[in-house]
C-alpha cells in the first residue's frame, strides 16, 4: 500500500501546529505500525509499501515556529517506487476539484454581496435626492406625444415649463419652508397637510366633505365632473377615520389610531372593510392611496380580479387624477395597467413597472410578480411602494386563483414585518394594505390572519334594495312572513317568469317613456349558459309587449344592433336573432 501524508495546515497564532497537523502525525504512526504487523506480499524494504512523505518534511515541521513566513511543501511524487499511483491528498484535506469549486462559490457569493451593497448604496443616494411627496416638485410627462417637464404645485396643478411654473415654484418653496419641509430627503414629506395653503382657505368642514381630507381643489372638482361625487357617505367618513394613520397624515394629530388605539409605527398596517355592492367601497381605498401618494410619495399597487375591471379603473383614475395624456392641468399622476392585454406590459411586469409609475393596476398574476420583485430586488421601482389595495378579497377562497391572492398577502406580511428583509434596506418596511369586499361571511379569521387588521363593516346602500321570494304563483316578502300578491298567468308562461319581468316594465311605463328608455331594465340571472339562452327565447316568445316597443327610435336601435352583430366575425347568434326584436338579449 502506498500512502503519502502531507498537509497544508498553517501554524496557529502562537506558532504551534494546528489540530490538523497532529491528526496527520497520528495517522502516519498508525500506518507505520500497520506496515510492521502486516508486511506486503508485493515487495519489501523500500518498495511499494513504504510510507512516502515530502522530502523536506523536517523543514516543514520547523516552519511552524515561524508564523511570519510559511513555506508550502512541494507536491509528492506522482508514483511510488513500485509503480502504483500515490495518494496525493492528506487525510481530511479536500480534493483539488472540491477546493476549486469551493473557491468559485465563495467568489460568486462575494460578487453577489458586493452587488447588493452597491445597489443599497444607490437606493440610499436616490432616496436622499428624492422628494417624498407628489406636490411641489418638477416631474416629466408625455403630453400630446412629447415628453415635457412640468411643475406640480402644492395646489395639485401641473404647469408646463415657463414663467408661470417658475413663479409658482418660488411661492411653493416659501410655503414648504414655513412648514419645515425640506426639498429632498426623508424630511421632504408633508406630515401635516392641513398646513398647506389651499387647506388654510377652506371653511370649517365636516368629514363627509372631500375637502376635509385635504385633497387639492382641482381633484375634488374632477371627482364631481367625472363621477358626480360631491361628498362622502357617513360610513365612508367613519371608515377613513378607522383606516387612516392619523399621525402620519395630519388627521387630528393624534398619537394613536382612534379605532384601534395601537401605535401607528407598525410596519404592516392592514384594513379590511365590507360594504354592499354600489355602496362606494372603491372611493375609500382611492382616497387612502391618494393621500399617501400626494403627501408622502408612497406609490400604490391596485389589485383587481379581471382584465376588464383593470381597464375600466384605469380610465376612471386617469380622468380624476390627471394623467390622460391630453392635458397637464391636474396633478398628472401616472397610472398604468398591467395585464395580458396592456401595451405597457409588452416587456413584462419587470420591464414596465418603473419608478415613474405612481399607481400600478394589475390582475392577481401580475401583482404577484410585482410583489416578488418588491421582496427580492433592490431598485428604485420598489423603494417607495407603500400602499397595496386588494379588491374582491373574498376571492381568497376561489379554487382556481385564490392561492395567488393568499400568497400575495403572505409575502407582504412577511416582507413588511421584517421576517423577509428588503434587499434595498435592512430596516423595517412600513406598508399599508387595504382589502375590501361585498361578500365576506366572517371577518374574525381574516382579522387574526392579517396581523390584527382594522375591520369596518356596513350594510348601507345608496338605493334601497327590496327582497321578494316567488313560491309557485305567489310573491312573498324576503323573510317569507307575508304574501305580497299573486303573479298573473300569461299564455305560454306557466312558471310566470315573463309575468314578473313584464310587471317591472309596466311600472316604468307609468312614470313616462323617457325614464323607461333611459334608465329602466331587468336583469335575470341564470345558472348556466344553456339555461340563459332558453330563458331569453321563452321571454321573447311570451312577451305581451309594452307601449314603447312600437316607437320608431326603439325599433331602429334594435335593428342597428342586429346589423352590427351580423357584420361581426362571429356572426349573429340565432338566439339573439329571435330575442333582440322583442327587447330581450
Automatic annotation (TrEMBL):
One protein family per Pfam: DEAD
GO molecular function: ATP binding; helicase activity; hydrolase activity; nucleic acid binding
Keywords associated with the record: ATP-binding, Helicase, Hydrolase, Nucleotide-binding
Biased composition (Basic residues): 105-125
Stretch list, region Disordered: 65-125
SUPFAM superfamilies: P-loop containing nucleoside triphosphate hydrolases
Domain Helicase ATP-binding: 262-458
Stored PANTHER family: DNA POLYMERASE THETA, PUTATIVE (AFU_ORTHOLOGUE AFUA_1G05260)-RELATED, DNA-DIRECTED DNA POLYMERASE
Protein name: Helicase ATP-binding domain-containing protein
Native organism: Perkinsus olseni (Perkinsus atlanticus)
Amino acid at each position: 500500500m502506498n500512502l503519502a501524508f502531507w498537509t497544508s495546515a498553517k501554524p496557529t497564532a502562537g506558532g504551534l501546529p494546528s489540530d490538523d497537523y497532529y491528526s496527520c502525525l497520528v495517522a502516519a504512526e498508525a500506518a507505520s505500525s500497520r506496515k510492521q504487523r502486516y508486511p506486503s506480499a508485493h515487495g519489501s524494504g523500500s518498495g511499494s509499501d513504504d510510507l512516502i512523505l515530502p522530502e523536506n518534511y523536517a523543514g516543514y515541521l520547523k516552519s511552524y515556529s515561524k508564523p511570519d513566513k510559511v513555506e508550502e511543501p512541494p507536491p509528492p511524487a506522482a508514483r511510488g517506487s513500485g509503480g502504483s499511483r500515490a495518494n496525493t491528498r492528506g487525510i481530511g484535506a479536500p480534493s483539488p476539484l472540491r477546493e476549486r469549486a469551493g473557491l468559485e462559490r465563495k467568489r460568486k457569493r462575494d460578487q453577489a454581496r458586493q452587488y447588493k451593497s452597491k445597489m443599497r448604496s444607490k437606493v440610499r443616494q436616490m432616496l436622499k435626492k428624492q422628494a417624498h411627496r407628489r406636490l411641489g416638485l418638477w416631474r416629466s410627462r408625455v403630453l400630446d406625444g412629447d415628453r415635457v417637464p412640468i411643475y406640480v404645485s402644492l395646489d395639485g396643478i401641473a404647469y408646463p415649463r415657463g414663467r408661470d411654473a417658475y413663479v409658482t415654484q418660488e411661492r411653493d418653496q416659501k410655503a414648504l419652508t414655513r412648514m419645515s419641509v425640506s426639498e429632498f430627503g426623508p424630511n421632504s414629506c408633508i406630515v401635516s397637510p392641513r398646513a398647506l395653503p389651499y387647506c388654510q382657505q377652506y371653511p370649517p368642514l365636516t368629514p363627509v366633505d372631500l375637502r376635509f381630507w385635504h385633497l387639492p381643489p382641482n381633484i375634488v372638482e374632477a371627482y364631481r365632473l367625472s363621477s358626480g361625487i360631491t361628498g362622502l357617505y357617513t360610513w365612508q367618513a367613519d371608515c377613513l377615520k378607522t383606516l387612516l394613520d392619523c399621525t402620519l397624515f395630519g388627521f387630528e394629530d393624534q398619537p394613536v389610531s382612534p379605532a384601534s388605539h395601537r401605535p401607528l409605527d407598525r410596519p404592516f398596517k392592514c384594513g379590511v372593510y365590507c360594504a354592499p355592492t354600489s355602496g362606494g367601497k372603491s372611493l375609500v381605498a382611492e382616497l387612502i392611496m391618494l393621500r399617501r401618494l400626494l403627501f408622502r410619495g408612497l406609490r400604490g399597487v391596485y389589485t383587481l380580479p379581471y382584465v376588464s375591471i383593470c381597464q375600466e379603473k384605469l380610465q376612471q383614475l386617469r380622468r380624476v387624477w390627471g394623467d390622460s395624456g391630453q392635458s397637464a392641468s391636474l396633478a398628472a399622476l401616472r397610472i398604468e395597467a398591467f395585464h395580458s392585454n396592456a401595451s405597457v406590459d409588452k416587456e413584462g411586469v419587470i420591464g414596465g413597472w418603473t419608478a415613474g409609475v405612481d399607481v400600478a393596476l394589475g390582475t392577481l398574476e401580475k401583482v404577484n410578480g410585482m410583489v416578488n420583485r418588491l421582496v427580492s430586488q433592490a431598485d428604485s421601482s420598489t423603494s417607495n411602494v407603500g400602499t397595496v389595495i386588494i379588491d374582491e378579497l373574498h376571492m381568497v377562497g376561489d379554487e382556481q386563483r385564490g392561492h395567488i391572492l393568499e400568497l400575495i398577502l403572505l409575502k407582504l406580511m412577511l416582507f413588511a414585518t421584517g421576517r423577509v428583509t428588503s434587499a434595498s434596506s435592512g430596516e423595517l418596511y412600513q406598508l399599508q394594505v387595504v382589502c375590501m369586499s361585498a361578500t365576506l361571511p366572517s371577518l374574525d379569521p381574516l382579522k387574526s390572519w392579517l396581523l390584527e387588521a382594522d375591520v369596518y363593516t356596513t350594510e348601507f346602500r345608496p338605493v334601497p334594495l327590496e327582497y321578494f321570494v316567488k313560491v309557485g304563483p305567489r310573491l312573498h316578502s324576503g323573510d317569507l312572513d307575508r304574501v305580497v300578491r299573486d303573479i298573473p298567468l300569461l299564455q305560454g308562461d306557466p312558471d310566470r317568469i315573463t309575468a314578473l319581468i313584464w310587471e317591472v316594465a309596466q311600472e316604468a311605463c307609468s312614470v313616462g317613456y323617457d325614464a323607461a328608455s333611459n334608465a329602466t331594465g331587468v336583469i335575470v340571472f341564470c345558472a348556466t349558459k344553456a339555461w340563459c339562452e332558453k330563458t331569453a327565447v321563452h321571454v321573447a316568445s311570451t312577451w305581451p309587449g309594452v307601449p314603447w316597443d312600437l316607437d320608431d327610435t326603439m325599433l331602429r336601435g334594435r335593428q342597428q344592433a342586429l346589423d352590427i352583430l351580423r357584420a361581426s366575425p362571429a356572426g349573429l347568434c340565432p338566439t339573439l336573432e329571435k330575442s333582440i326584436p322583442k327587447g330581450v338579449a
